[in-house]
């Protein structure tokens, strides 16, 4: 219990320190409001529209894969913790290792399937490919 | 393997103050957390304005800061004042609460991770049974801050930077954690102090010098995998695509100025040191080492990792974003699973 109080204390300090630094900065810094300053940076040009745009995330399938593998790592951890002590207490290698090999095997089959379906492939947007003019023959 | 539970820093402090019960826990925890946070702030203050410049300059055969104090060390003080006294420019159309919260979330996550790191000489804030999982969980909160900063900034470069940061995190988080799991097979515990204690046992003796079972020696392959995944996790070269100055200006931190920039920068540096600390705890025997006190060895190890990131920054070109994801999903993921399965089989056959 006391260790979680200590971690909570760390959380309090980790929020407090940035706040203190912000307060110190607020006392030190000048404020010179001018127009042009507050434009967002777009290589010196006047920004075209906002940044709340539809954006082609080529790796969104990867995010779905991540959910699967992340849950899987959570399931692997308890097994790694008991693995050695279970062996020392006389459990046979087959009973303790085989289920996890099967489990990881299923996931690897899933990864291979996703791989062959192009889930981890860099998807090029058809629009960008159409506009591309150089090296068309390649 | 008996659990050698050392007294943690809060216990020592509450013992010194003569406080008991919940009050002792709270006061000891707060004072201990304050001490550890300040250790990290000082480390970062040396690393950011001074060591980073000096190291980069040394690789480029330049001199860098050398005017104030020995080796220019005192440049840290004017630099800190300079950075804090910059004007805070709030760009048009930023998403206000999120934009202000992001610079707090990033250092918060990194500092929280340090709560469970054993720094040697009895400096460890907390030692929960799930320490290793907690360290990874706390370090992962940073991605949230990066997405907040990128999406709230109303800047296209920031948006791309934030999306890349998420892609980097999800691609390399799994290899990182799975490689750590292969170490847990040896230790049989997620408790940080036990992971360190297991590594104190001698592996073999060469000419009277006993070599401890640091997992970097036991399983160098896992160590290399972990360090590479770690570089990607903290977003350093060759995996610094979330910031990629030549492609997307500064990524998610493009629109931040003044103290907000300092806080994001600070969070990133503490993250590098947290990465180094987790690597040291898992693979390099934590704060263990000959002759010098534990804390000194801990500092040496995390600085070695920092030096390595700066070395990579100066020496290795950046990957392209699609190559970066390919290395993560097709290379590191497969290798880390191979490492886990092989480690389990070898440990099983030997035991």
Automatic annotation (TrEMBL), chain A:
The chain crosses the membrane at residues 6-28, 59-81, 93-115. Keywords: Membrane, Transmembrane, Transmembrane helix, Transport. It holds the Pfam family Oxidored_q4. One of its GO terms (molecular function) is NADH dehydrogenase (ubiquinone) activity. InterPro entries: NADH_UbQ/plastoQ_OxRdtase_su3 (IPR000440), NDAH_ubi_oxred_su3_sf (IPR038430). It is found in: Membrane. GO terms for cellular component: NADH dehydrogenase complex. Its main location: membrane. The keyword Transferase does not apply. Belongs to the complex I subunit 3 family. This is NADH-quinone oxidoreductase subunit A. It comes from Haloferax larsenii. The lineage of its organism: Archaea, Methanobacteriati, Methanobacteriota, Stenosarchaea group, Halobacteria.
UniProtKB/TrEMBL annotation, chain B:
It is a multi-pass membrane protein. InterPro entries: NADH_UbQ_OxRdtase_su1/FPO. The keyword Transmembrane helix applies. The keyword Transmembrane helix applies. Keywords: Membrane, Transmembrane, Transmembrane helix. This is NADH-quinone oxidoreductase subunit H. It is found in: Membrane. Its main location: membrane. It holds the Pfam family NADHdh. The lineage of its organism: Archaea, Methanobacteriati, Methanobacteriota, Stenosarchaea group, Halobacteria. The chain crosses the membrane at residues 26-51, 101-120, 132-152, 172-191, 203-229, 259-284, 291-312, 332-350.
